[in-house]
Specification:
This protein is mainly beta and 295 residues long. It contains two helices and 23 strands. Strand 5 and strand 6 form a beta hairpin.
């Protein structure tokens, strides 16, 4: 509701400014806040160890605002003006800014808000409202998936295996949820076409001893999960694919409000799951035109 009122009033203010452009308009006609931002914005940089700096989810608790980092790892979050933050006006207190990747350590920074504005030059923020230091994201679980064979041809009925290697750091212990039966899909594996983002789900058969749905990974006990999938390439159009295992780290320290900002369908076995920000090492599967003899 706060954001709805804020956006409505902001649109009105900008329209009003446009009508008096000849006189200049640097203040907000509906309040005391500078419409260019004032001290309502925090920004910063995120560095991802071993992966792209893009797509890290950044969430500001209580204000319940989120964004994702761009290709350079940069982000900014702007809170509503003080007069629409609460019935009493601008809020005051300390708040956490969280940084989330699905298989990395959850990071956070503390920021101060006083009378509805960020307190610059205090705590994690410099005098311009930027984080003093980049946020470094450290891997908690390494995910590597290999598909064999890595090239198949249209019209073939094939059997291929997906080998998922799960490992963690020297002092880490990680529990992961890797379901064997998900809404009637047995040992499912997601295939995403890298150019069109088309998504296809295939069932598989576990090779060797079946693991439980929740698996513990330590540095002394990494896991390799091998699934055998039978498919017709008529089910996969021409293209290059990545095989993506459906899994989550089991953790009670991740705020539920943060997870809601991943996406409404984040648990869906399909495109919705791919909204979850992960860093994975995925080998490609190529689907090619069939070779015609004598051509």
């Amino acid at each position: 509701m706060i954001l709805f009122l804020y956006n409505t009033l902001r649109r009105f203010a900008l329209t009003l400014c446009g009508t008096v452009a000849l006189l200049g308009c640097e203040s907000n006609p509906i309040g005391d806040d500078d419409i260019t931002g004032g001290r309502l914005t925090v920004r910063g940089e995120v560095v991802v160890s071993g992966g792209s700096d893009e797509d890290v989810l950044v969430w500001l608790e209580d204000f319940d605002l989120s964004t994702r980092t761009d290709a350079a790892g940069d982000f900014s979050i702007t809170i509503p003006p003080a007069d629409v933050q609460s019935a009493q006006g601008g809020v005051t207190g300390g708040f956490k800014l969280y940084f989330y990747l699905g298989n990395f350590r959850l990071e956070s920074k503390s920021v101060l808000v006083q009378n509805g504005e960020f307190v610059y030059s205090e705590g994690a923020l410099d005098e311009a409202g930027a984080l003093r230091q980049p946020v470094h994201m450290i891997p908690l679980l390494e995910i590597k998936t290999v598909v064999l064979p890595d090239t198949i041809f249209i019209g073939e009925s094939v059997v291929f295996s997906t080998r998922t290697f799960l490992s963690t750091g020297e002092r880490d212990t990680v529990d992961i949820y890797f379901p064997r039966d998900l809404n009637g899909r047995i040992n499912p594996m997601i295939f995403r076409e890298v150019n069109s983002n088309g998504v296809y789900v295939f069932d598989g058969t576990t090779v060797g001893v079946a693991e439980p749905d929740t698996i513990r990974i330590t540095n002394l006990s990494p896991k390799e999960i091998v699934l055998v999938t039978r498919a017709s390439t008529n089910d996969l159009p021409l293209g290059t694919y990545e095989a993506i295992p459906y899994l989550f780290i089991v953790s009670e320290e991740i705020p539920s409000g943060l997870l809601e900002h991943v996406g409404a369908d984040r648990l869906e076995l399909g495109a919705g799951y791919l909204d979850n920000p992960f860093v994975r090492d995925l080998s490609p599967l190529h689907v090619l035109e069939a070779v015609v003899e004598g051509s």
